[in-house]
Automatic annotation (TrEMBL):
CDD domains: TGS_YchF_OLA1, YchF. The gene is ychF. This is Ribosome-binding ATPase YchF. One of its GO terms (cellular component) is cytoplasm. Residues 278-361 form the TGS domain. It holds the Pfam family YchF-GTPase_C.
Length: 363
């Protein structure tokens, strides 16, 4: 599961990527600096891990991770192949969620491909390209299923009906994600792998003085996306990239406080991306290792066990589960057990975010 950073050229995508990941991507003040996508595995900052570490005092701590891809900038006409558009759109298709970066800072020295700063226009430019590409995909698919539907194929008929609705949505300038669908249709929709059906969040790239409270551009963005049910994150990308370069934690913290932040906006963004991908965390907590494991929301206990090892899933017998809050309240596994707060759960158990788990299995 990975989230792709998308936007116009030269808006700060690679700079943002560098704030998030230790893999250093090339960033420079000219459009199309990035051609090949940069992939980074990013630790998910989680204050709960620090609390568990303080209680358990393990030899090591392993955070959850999420994959972030820095993709080349898209330009007007990308859907028709402009500016290597097809290749870049292909990179987006491989992602499961989109982090859409919008330039919300003035600076005459940083080239804007359209000559002026206007995040609303920029968002529309990107949206239109993605929608046009989806329209192409939908029309191709429609051609196929219409034939089958006419020949009496019931499943094809259903698909055709949904495709026509998607087509209408796209033609009115809306993204496929805005369409209301039921469970069955959702599955079909996912199978089309449309670019505009992917969940999205917006990053407003602001200057240092707007890091805390945003600015007029950010307000406009919030206004425009208010019906999209999407998160908007304000981030002073270049400033945070500079802060990331500082050696010590104390120094970084001092600079963050200087611009009015308690934690890096990048940390907030990583957590948001993790949720956008529909991921959640459970923990294992032993003296050797305290570790955060990534699962999908709705995963069962055996599925969660399978993330550690496939044998754990195949031979799953039961799980011993402690709710995160109980662990913190009682302070250790032994005390939780004493208080009768450790639960034994079976195959059907749906794991909750923050559960501390121990699996029993047969091999
Ligand atoms: N002043 C200012 N400059 C920024 C900010 N974010 C990025 N830049 C600068 O803008 C230029 C482009 O940044 P990149 O991160 O390379 O942009 P990109 O979106 O990856 O661009 P492409 O790969 O060409 O699509 C660099 O010179 C950055 O230093 C910002 O928040 N403020
Ligand atoms: Mg770049």
């Amino acid at each position: 599961m990975k989230a792709g950073i998308v936007g116009l050229p030269n808006v700060g995508k690679s700079t943002l990527f560098n704030c998030l990941s230790n893999a250093k991507a090339q960033s420079a003040n000219f459009p199309f600096c990035t051609i090949e996508p940069n992939l980074g595995v990013v630790n998910v900052p989680d204050p709960r891990l620090e609390k568990l570490e303080a209680l358990v005092k393990p030899e090591r701590v392993l955070p959850a991770t999420v994959e972030i891809v820095d993709i080349a900038g898209l330009v007007r006409g990308a859907s028709e192949g402009e500016g290597l558009g097809n290749q870049f759109l292909g990179n987006i298709r491989e992602c499961h969620a989109i982090i859409h970066v919008l330039r919300c800072f003035d600076n005459d020295n940083i080239v804007h491909v359209d000559g002026s700063v206007d995040p609303i226009r920029d968002k529309e430019t990107i949206d239109i390209e993605l929608q046009l590409k989806d329209l192409e995909t939908v029309e191709k698919r429609l051609e196929k299923v219409t034939r089958a539907a006419k020949a009496g194929d019931k499943k094809a008929a259903k698909e055709m009906e949904l495709l026509n609705r998607i087509k209408e949505t796209l033609q009115t300038g809306l993204s496929a994600r805005s369409l209301q669908v039921n469970e069955e249709e959702k599955e079909l929709l996912d199978s089309f792998q449309l670019l505009t059906a992917k969940p999205v969040l917006y990053v407003c790239n602001v200057d240092e003085k707007s890091a805390k409270n945003g600015n007029a551009y950010v307000e406009k963005v919030k206004e425009v996306v208010k019906n999209e049910d999407a998160e908007v994150i304000v981030l002073a990308v270049a400033t945070e990239a500079d802060i990331t370069e500082l050696e010590s934690y104390e120094e970084r913290q001092m600079f963050l406080e200087d611009i009015g932040l308690e934690e890096p906006g990048a940390s907030k963004l990583i957590r948001a991306a993790y949720h956008l991908l529909n991921l959640q965390t459970y923990f294992t907590a032993g003296v050797k290792e305290v570790r955060a494991w990534t699962i999908h929301k709705g995963d069962t206990a055996p599925q969660a066990a399978g993330v550690i090892h496939t044998d754990f899933e195949k031979g799953f017998i039961r799980a011993e589960v402690i709710a995160y809050d109980d662990f913190i309240t009682y302070g250790s596994e032994a005390k939780v057990k004493e208080a009768g707060k450790m639960r034994v759960e079976g195959k059907e158990y749906i794991v909750k975010d923050g559960d501390i788990m121990h699996f029993r299995f047969n091999v």
